[in-house]
Each structure stands twice: as C-alpha cells, then as structure tokens.
Amino acid sequence: MLYTLSKNTRTFPKEKLNVKIFTSRDEMGKAAAHDVVIKINELLLKKDELNIIFAAAPSQNDFFYYLTKNTLVQWNRINAFHMDEYIGLDKDAPQGFGNFLKERIFNKVPFKNTYYLNGQTSSPEAECVRYNNLLKEKPVDIVCMGIGENGHIAFNDPPADFNDPSKVKVVKLDKVCRQQQVNDRCFDTLNKVPTHAFTLTIPALLKADFIFCIVPTLNKADAIFHTLNDEISESCPATILRTKDNAILYLDNESSSLLKI
Question: Would you identify the CATH topology of the domain 17-214+240-251?
C-alpha cells in the first residue's frame, strides 16, 4: 500500500500527543492504516508476534477498510483483542462488538489468534479474570481506538479512573455513552442499548507501546475540542492521551472543526 501525506494535512503536537488533521474521512482512514502497517512491520522485525487491541465502532470503518486491503502484513504473526463488549446481548446480535469486529476485520485477515470478550457469560467476574490473564500473558504492542462523544476511551465513561488496578472490568454505561450508540445507528432507541459492558481500563490501554486513535465526524467535534483543550482530568478521559508517548490522533475536517489552529 503506497500513501503520500497530502499537502493539505495539518499536524501539530499537544503535549506528547501527535495530532493529524485530514481534509476527508477517507483520507484520514487511509493515513491511519498506512501508519499502523508501517509500525506493525517495523515491530515484526524485532518480535516473533504482536498483540493488537481494536475498537469496535463505526468511526473505525474507513481505517479497517484500508487496513484489511493491505497485503504487506504477516497477519498470522498477530494476535487480535477487542477492547469492550456489551453484556447481555444475543450472541448473534449485529450490535455486539465482537460481531462488528468479526465482520470488518477479524474474519478478513488471517490473524494468529482472535480473543473475544464473552458478553453472554453467566459469570462476568470470571470473564474479567480470564481476559485479564490473557492480557498479562500477551502484553499489548498496539492499540487502535476511538474517542466517544462524552470523551470516553473504550467504555471508560467520565469520571474515569486513570489509576484503575484492573485491566478489565464491568461498567455501567452513562446515558450520553448509550445515546451515542443510537446516534451511530447501532440501536433504534435508547432503551434497547445495554446498560452494562466489559471494558479494558485506561491503564490497560496506556500500557501499549503505541496508540493510534481514529476519530472522524461532526458528532465528535465537541469531544475532540475538550480532549485537546481541557485540563488533563478524569472528567474527560481522552485527555490522558496527551500524556502518552508514541500516540497519534487522526481527525477529519468535521471532528476538528471546533479547533483553533
């Protein structure tokens, strides 16, 4: 996959976070996929296998499209994880994050292993322990993620815990977070959105060596403004990305529309 950064792309640092703004969502997705592929291939020169966490959200669709088209990656040396999952949806529900990822990436490239959170488990506590142990066994190299309308990362709604001792936990989703699922057309009405979910915690995500955060659309403009301008605080969880080495935030013309650059 060949990619050349457009001359119209704007880039700037915000503390440790590198920000890239593209003229279109398609250009943003293409650039993010290019950068992830470059990093994967660089790391595979040093390691036998990699562990990557992927977010399940419509915001990632352009990125997934270009990532799965790439023929230069040895996917059979990569273990794939997903970062959050609703509790209590039917196993085959299209809104399930595991099903979303299966359709858009996990079944499209030949990963070595894919590790799913089980949202149908009868013991959420045991499922947290199981996934926590997997993450201990296979330390994360790369996280590919987004940011929610309320500033959440994964399902860590505000006020999030920047020092959470767990890697995986059960959370109650706040109303703004649940409404986003309706706004994204994943559910018809708010009362159909589950109230609880599994999530990887903020320390678990920041443990990765590299973070690629892909955030398009006008719905995210307010969250991006606060992510880059607010005090780093648990009241806007995504602000923590500004403290992370080797993190890149990808925006399009809409999600960046409130920024003064």
Answer: Rossmann fold (3.40.50)
